[in-house]
Design a protein that fits this description.
- The complex is a heterodimer of chains A (about 450) and B (about 475).
- With about 450 residues, chain A is α+β, with helices and mostly antiparallel strands.
- Chain A has eleven helices and 20 strands.
- In chain A, strands 1, 2, 3, 4, 5, 6 and 7 form a seven-stranded mixed sheet that branches. In chain A, strands 8, 13, 14, 15, 16, 17 and 20 form a seven-stranded mixed sheet that branches.
- In chain A, β13 and β14 form a beta hairpin.
- Chain A is globular.
- Chain A starts with a helix and ends with a strand.
- Chain B has about 475 residues and is of the alpha+beta class.
- Chain B has two domains: about 220 residues, PmbA/TldD fold, CATH 3.30.2290; about 250 residues, no CATH class.
- Chain B contains nine helices and 24 strands.
- In chain B, α3 runs parallel beside α4.
- In chain B, about 60% of the residues are buried.
- The model of chain B has no long low-confidence stretch (mean pLDDT about 95).
- The chains are: A alpha+beta (about 450), B alpha+beta (about 475).
- β3 of chain A pairs parallel with β2 of chain B, so a sheet runs across the interface.
Chain lengths: ~450, ~475
């Protein structure tokens, strides 16, 4: 009993200091100690302490905070497995009590389940820790820092700021921890004619001057949109895609694309590359690249991905993303991909086309800044449909003529990253994933723009 | 669930209104793929959304700290944020945006989750998985069951007290057939469309096995089917694709928060303007769209929205004319447009926004045979597999899993890779026949994304089969 009391006091002390990592270590250690013979347990932690301010017309639409975390437990016993997750509260005793109760439920359930021949057993490897505490904007100063600069322009978007946590541990002693502060202001500026410019100001340490300069640059882009939009006809066009648009195309590879399981299960556009009936352009190279350290390298199994891994090398498929479960099931080698086999830190290699040469190189065609609502229209053929969005322009003789009205496209990546890829931009942009489904994403993509000789607009 | 009233009483912060919305949701997902278990997972999320109104500005704090102290700290932080945000408020609200109601809602079900064991569910999924794999050409087969138990309790300083307990099911079967680079997938209703408020009584083994066999057979059939032709012709759409058609080209387009511009940075705007309500000819006179939270077993039936507004059935589009928007109390106050009880949040950690609930197309008077026999030349399509629409909800393109050629009023052959595209209003004005109640089927989706911060919410769609004229149809690459 005295030991328990001491432990409780220590946990209370840690709660007050908000040392989430230390609390998780104590929690996981106690849970691992409770395991019975022949049981193994894997555990992940995911949480955030975030401020969100939603803005419409440079006014506050909604504002608030979210303090959330959950722990997932995966029990393995007798070639069977099941998992449970629960909300990890600020009360250490309750967390442990909940987890022990869940463990009892899992023991009851696991004996009823079929044998799973492809269980990924816990691994033993070096533990890692990456903690980045930065100078974020003070929560109570956010409104005065952000809003005044936005006045006199129709700005709509979302401010998201705070600390994010990821952890992975297992009963063999593995313990990874990632903790990072970051902010994003993802916004659109809108003209009275409903033309829009997109911007994302993101970082780790707040710099008011940089913010004001960034927003000012976005406002300047609005001038390009003063002309009346032109309606263009469906057909084939020469197109320059800005890096943000290219990142949306590459993002599609995470969904029935570059994952080994999706190829094996017949739902990937990469199958044609796998069986060598198609290749992409020699100008197209794509890697998973964790070298910036902005994204945790460990996955939910606690495995560490290679710092860099080439997926497509000058148009040829070199590697797919292979999780350890997929590796076991299909007899291939794991490269420590996350279980969903999605891109976590992709980087497309830059090319030689400098910014000043973009418009002259388009000559007659389109300059597309952003695209919207992509989906596979014919997945096995690599065909993607979607729409133009934001600042997209008609270009004639190397000069911007006017914005264009929204157009639908429907074309295959075997053309726009393959036969029709004419040039790749020299400059690579860092594009943070600003999505906040369930929690703030930590993923980041790096890519250049591309010049495509022929691209199909359909409606 | 905790004693929410005591937490509310413990809040000592000078605000104009405060509400607490507790959500405890447990999702149990089980999946068999290719004869092996790949998912036996249960996740519980439990927390409180603390929302305050001060100086006309709402602010919130979604907290996992369920103690009185934790809730009080959350209220204080939200109050401070409301105070500093108020000078920039988009609208100065009062308590009218949070109407006081008391009541309860309970999903209809006979058998609880515990009435069928984990082992029994796995066994049923295994059997259905074997039934899907009717040939070696079926290279992957998946059987999925998701059970959601979601308990909500809302109390407020103006004496709202609402308890709602939901029991929801999602069930999907999927078979992928492959022959070289030709890969065809057939599912149960398309993109997880098979979802309801219903208990474990849903799992009738005989019916599940019959569905699995049909899905496997149709995946195989698609391998040798002709490619869907490129032409402009008549299109008959089955209920499980009408669901998506309604969702994308009607539901989202008439969300009032979109029309007010809140979503312009993410989900987009709308071709509909505030002045259109009461006058816009959205579709043909056969088009009657309702917001109906009262349909038994439909996925998004509920008693009250997350502002506390009582949910009732309303016509959104009556005889083709746009009458009412999908706007909760805040949007109704901001816009002056009549709305519905659709101010909904995905969980305790998100603030409510305008969402779809059950958005249905009311039945007409044509039997399925009448519809097919009326078509001289056209295509019939089932089950969504691809969806995309522009940020104004105008230019859409949808793909389906399975199609039939219709010639002289009869199905003549199966077609693969069917797609169609159009522009929302002109498409709906070409609605020529609406199926009767015998063709009316209930579907839904668990994955409707919207909002900043992003939220996924469950919506229901029920519809009869319908005939549209002059639709641009095309096949695969």
């Amino acid at each position: 009993m005295p030991l328990l009391r001491a432990s409780f006091m220590m946990l209370q002390f840690l709660v007050e200091l908000d040392i989430v990592k230390e609390l998780f270590k104590v929690f996981s250690s106690k849970l691992f100690d409770s395991l019975l013979k022949d049981e193994t347990l894997k555990m992940t932690f995911s949480g955030e302490s975030s401020q969100f301010i939603r803005i419409n017309n440079a006014k506050i639409r909604q504002a608030g905070y979210v303090d959330d975390a959950d722990v997932e437990l995966t029990l393995i016993f007798n070639n069977r497995t099941c998992s449970r997750s629960f909300t990890y509260t600020n009360n250490p005793d309750n967390n442990l009590k909940t987890a022990l109760s869940i463990l009892t439920e899992m023991r009851d359930e696991i004996t009823q389940l079929p044998v799973d021949p492809y269980i990924v057993d816990p691994i033993i490897s070096n533990s890692t820790e990456d903690i980045r505490h930065c100078s974020l904007l003070n929560e109570e100063q956010v409104v005065d820092a952000l809003l005044p600069v936005m006045q006199n322009v129709d700005l709509v978007g979302i401010w998201a700021s705070g600390r994010a946590f990821r952890g992975a541990a297992n009963s063999l002693g593995l313990n990874h921890w990632f903790e990072a502060d970051s902010f994003t202001l993802d916004y659109s500026l809108v003209t009275p004619q409903h033309q829009m410019v997109k911007g994302t100001f993101s970082g780790e340490d707040w710099d008011q001057n940089k913010y004001e300069e960034f927003l000012s640059a976005s406002k300047n882009k609005l001038e390009l949109l003063n002309k009346k939009p032109v309606k263009i006809k469906p057909g084939s066009y020469r197109v320059w895609f800005e890096p943000a648009a290219v990142s949306d195309f590459i993002g599609m590879f995470s969904w029935n694309g570059v994952g080994e399981a999706s190829i094996q299960q017949g739902c990937s556009g990469f199958s044609k590359m796998r069986n060598n009936s198609e290749i992409l352009s020699p100008k197209f190279t794509l890697k998973e690249d964790f070298s910036s350290g902005m994204v945790p390298r460990f996955n939910s199994e606690g495995e560490i991905a290679p710092e860099t891994m080439t997926l497509i090398d000058r148009g040829k498929l070199q590697n797919t993303l292979v999780s350890s479960r997929t590796a076991a099931e299909y007899g291939v080698e794991s490269n420590m991909a996350e279980n969903g086999e999605f891109l976590r830190s992709p980087k497309m290699q830059s090319g030689s086309l400098s910014e000043v040469d973009i418009l002259p190189s388009i000559d007659n065609g389109l300059f597309i800044s952003n695209i919207h609502y992509l989906n596979w229209s014919d997945n096995p053929s690599g065909r993607i449909t979607g729409l133009t969005r934001y600042a997209c322009f008609h270009v004639e003789r190397g000069e911007v003529v006017a914005p264009i009205e929204t157009m639908r496209f429907d074309d295959t990546f075997y053309r726009f990253f393959g036969t029709e890829l004419e040039a790749v931009g020299k400059k690579v942009n860092i594009i943070p994933d600003v999505s906040t489904y369930y929690r703030r994403s930590l993923e980041v993509m790096k890519c250049p723009g591309i010049l495509v000789n022929s691209f199909a607009l359909t409606l | 669930m905790i004693d929410l009233h005591s937490k509310l009483s413990a809040i000592d912060v000078p605000v104009d209104w405060v509400g607490l919305r507790e959500v405890s949701e447990t999702t149990t997902a089980r999946m068999i793929r290719d004869g092996n278990p790949v998912l036996n997972d249960s996740s519980n999320s439990h927390g409180i959304m603390v929302e305050v109104l001060k100086n006309g500005q709402f602010a919130y704090y979604g907290t996992k700290d369920l103690t009185s102290r934790g809730v009080s700290i959350a209220a204080a932080k939200a109050a401070k944020l409301a105070e500093i945000g108020a000078p920039y408020a988009i609208y100065r609200f009062d308590q009218g945006a949070r109407p006081a109601h008391t009541g309860n809602y309970q999903s209809p079900f006979d058998k609880s989750r515990g009435s069928v064991s984990a082992g029994e569910i796995n066994e049923l999924l295994l059997k259905s998985n074997r039934a899907l794999k009717i040939s070696d050409k079926i290279i992957s087969a998946t059987s999925l069951c998701v059970v959601i138990e979601s308990d909500h309790h809302f109390v407020s300083s103006n004496e709202s007290d609402i308890s709602q307990d939901f029991f929801l099911l999602e069930f999907d079967l999927r078979a992928t057939a492959q022959d070289g680079n030709n890969m065809q997938t057939r599912t149960f209703g398309g993109m997880r469309g098979n979802c309801f408020q219903m208990g474990m009584e849903y799992f009738d083994e005989f019916e599940v096995m019959a569905c699995a066999t049909r899905i496997g057979e149709q995946a195989l059939e698609l391998l040798t089917a002709d490619e869907c032709p490129d032409e402009t012709t008549d299109l008959v759409i089955a209920s499980d694709q009408m669901m998506l058609q309604i969702h994308e080209s009607v539901g989202h387009a008439i969300e009032v928060d979109r029309i007010l511009g809140d979503e312009r940075n993410y989900a987009g705007w709308s071709f509909v303007n505030l002045k259109d309500f009461g006058s816009l000819k959205y579709g043909s006179p056969l088009m009657n769209i309702t917001f109906d939270p009262t349909v038994s077993n439909e996925f998004a039936s509920y008693g009250y929205d997350d502002s506390g507004l009582k949910a009732e059935k309303h016509h959104l589009i009556k005889d083709g004319t746009l009458m009412r928007g999908l706007g909760g109390m805040e949007s109704q106050i901001r816009s002056g447009v009549p709305g519905v009880a659709n101010f909904r949040a995905s969980s305790w950690n998100r603030a409510p926004i305008d969402r779809m609930g059950n958005i249905n197309l009311e039945p007409g008077d044509s039997s399925f045979n009448d519809i097919i026999e009326s078509v001289e030349h056209g295509i019939y399509m089932e089950s969504n597999r691809s969806w995309s629409i522009d940020d104004y909800r105008n230019k859409f393109q949808f793909g389906c899993e399975y199609a039939k050629l219709i010639e002289n009023g009869k199905f003549t052959k199966t077609l693969r890779n069917p797609n169609y595209r159009g522009i929302s209003s002109s498409f709906w004005n070409n609605l020529k026949r609406v199926g009767d109640s015998s063709t009316f089927q209930v579907y839904g989706t668990p994955n409707c994304g919207k909002g900043e911060p992003n939220q996924v919410i469950r919506v229901g769609h029920a519809s009869p089969a319908c005939l549209f004229h002059d639709v641009a149809i095309f096949g695969g690459a």
